[in-house]
Amino acid sequence: MQEMKDVLKTLGIKDVNPGLCTGTKWIDTTGDKLTSYSPADGTAIAEIQQATLEDYRKVIDTAKGAFKVWKKVPAPKRGEIVRQIGLELRKYKEPLGRLVSYEMGKIYQEGLGEVQEMIDICDFAVGQSRQLYGFTMHSERAEHRMYDQYHSLGIVGVVSAFNFPVAVWAWNAMIALAAGDVVVWKPSSKVLLCAIAVHNIVADVLKRNDIPEGVLSLVATSSKYLGDDMFSDKNIPLISFTGSTRVGKKVGRLVGERLGRSILELGGNNAVIVTPTSNQDMALRAIVFGAVGTTGQRCTSTRRILLHDSIYEEFKNKLLNVYKGLKIGNPLDEKNHVGPLIDKGASDTYFKAIEKVKAEGGKILFGGEVYKDASCASGCYVVPCVAEVENHYEIVQEETFAPLLYVIKYSTLDEAIELHNAVPQGLSSAMFSTNLLETERFLSNEGSDCGIANINIGTSGAEIGGAFGGEKDTGGGRESGSDAWKAYMRRQTNTINYGSELPLAQGIEFNV
Ligand code: UN1
Predict the structure, then answer these.
(1) Is 34 in the pocket of ligand 1 (CB under 6 A)?
(2) Do 470 and 460 meet the contact criterion of CB atoms below 8 Å apart?
(3) Ligand 1: which of 104, 298, 342 to mutate, most ligand atoms within 8 Å of CB?
(4) Angle at 350 between CA 478 and CA 294, to 5 degrees
(5) pLDDT tens per residue, range 288-344
(6) Does ligand 1 have an atom closer than 6 angstroms to the CB of 452?
(7) Where is the Aldehyde dehydrogenase domain (predicted)?
(8) Whose CA is nearest to atom 3 of ligand 1?
(9) 225 CB within 6 A, ligand 1
(10) Which residues pair with 34 in a beta bridge?
(11) DSSP characters over 128-140
């Protein structure tokens, strides 16, 4: 196993890193330096010279120029570049996964899994580059042909959150590249080194293929220098934003005001319904991974479980037993299940939420305190919490981005579905059951109101092949697989007359 300093070297991370990249060129920036600290051990990993608003504008100009060239490259040839990026990511999967784990705090296996998602979406986008299909329609007019086709959109602004420091960019950027768009990425200021490492990896491919500067750009900075300007920027026809519902509402408003497009991937409040016919061992594994994986900091994390009253006590006790065995500690130590939260602010939010649970009448069944261990000195380690609550509590209606799992009792399927949907968010959902009538009902129009609904698997860990996103306060956007690519292109309907008459549609007679 490489030492962290060797990992950083392999990934091209320096002591001080410029905050601006237009593909292969790193550009010196003038903003203040920002230090990235590891939540694993509190160490200052490296510094980033932040990009300023002026720097951002330069990148947008470069990206505009690059779009003119890139959109002319045939889509399968664009796919070839994506294929090479996928190969390069395979080479760097281990060190990049390790850096994700160290800078963000998710356990090593999840760091590797995140890089694997990048590789998977590359493969998907390569295929997609030969499948940017439109329909052909039959015209109502003789000797006419109609069809729709998809053209490139322009600059795609990707604004990603700390919890998936590299994968969210890839879901957006690889599809955008296949679509003939260019990308400007503003990652969370909490995980800038991961983004810098990704750009170092990708730079080799861009260089080798003489790809113009501005096809893939990175603006590494914080809200001190770049906030709403990007959302209001008319140069960016599509903003893909991942983050909180609070900020997402503002993004939607600002992009909407200029009639731009946005893909919003906001909060979740994901529940698992465990029915009397379920395989409880499977449900347990899925729920525990869903609740404590990434230390409860996935949009898809399991936040609520709805347990049928006939199995309530039995399942609850099994769950608490698994929680007792969870190993908390350094995310790079492969024996641990739970790493730290991203920072102390996140732990404060967690503890405040637990106080609110108690104040509203909830009962803490397990955990919820700081994890005190000499080797976990960063102060970001907490013991995951299980609390018995009622669904209508104000705090239960919120997404607390931490390992706080609510246990709720139900007695009929109608009640379970009603409780399930009675939250503002609508991202991911699951039911454990072997009763066909129950599972089909859950997936029906009368069932889960979420963008993702699963049977006998958990709420998190979605594959890239499906469209990812959700309804209500989750924002309504879809990215990654299925036909999500359509959001990254503009649709054009074409009608061609190959006859020598000019019939008007709708049978209109107009003789001039
Ligand atoms: C997120 O938390 O922002 O389904 C995305 C999952 C991952 C993606 C999570 N594939 O858990």
Answers:
(1) no
(2) no
(3) 298
(4) 50
(5) 999 999 999 999 999 999 999 999 999 999 999 999 999 999 999 999 999 999 999
(6) no
(7) 26-493
(8) 299
(9) no
(10) 48
(11) HTT-----EE--S
| Reported pTM | 0.97
b (16+ CB within 10 A) / e for 484-505: bbbbbbeeeeeeeeeeeeeeee
461 in contact with ligand 1, CB cutoff 6 A: yes
Tell me what ipTM this predicted complex has.
0.96
| Alpha carbon of 301 to ligand 1 centroid (Å) | 8
**Which of 119, 188, 289, 300 to mutate for ligand 1's pocket (most ligand atoms within 8 Å of CB)?**
300
Which CATH entry fits the domain spanning 1-266+475-493: 3.40.47.10, 3.40.605.10, 3.10.180.10, 3.40.630.10? 3.40.605.10
Ligand 1 atom 6, closest CA: 461
Q: Of the residues 110, 114, 265, 438, which is catalytic?
A: 265
Predicted local distance difference test score (pLDDT) of residue 161 = 98
Over residues 219-273, the pLDDT tens digits come to 999 999 998 999 999 999 999 999 999 999 999 999 999 999 999 999 999 999 9
CATH superfamily of 270-466: Aldehyde Dehydrogenase; Chain A, domain 2 (3.40.309.10)
DSSP character at residue 406: E
Active site residue 265: yes
446-503 pLDDT per residue, tens: 999 999 999 999 999 999 999 999 999 999 999 999 999 999 999 999 999 999 999 9
Read off the tokens for 256.
Answer: 């909407």
Domain boundaries defined on the chain:
1-266+475-493, 270-466
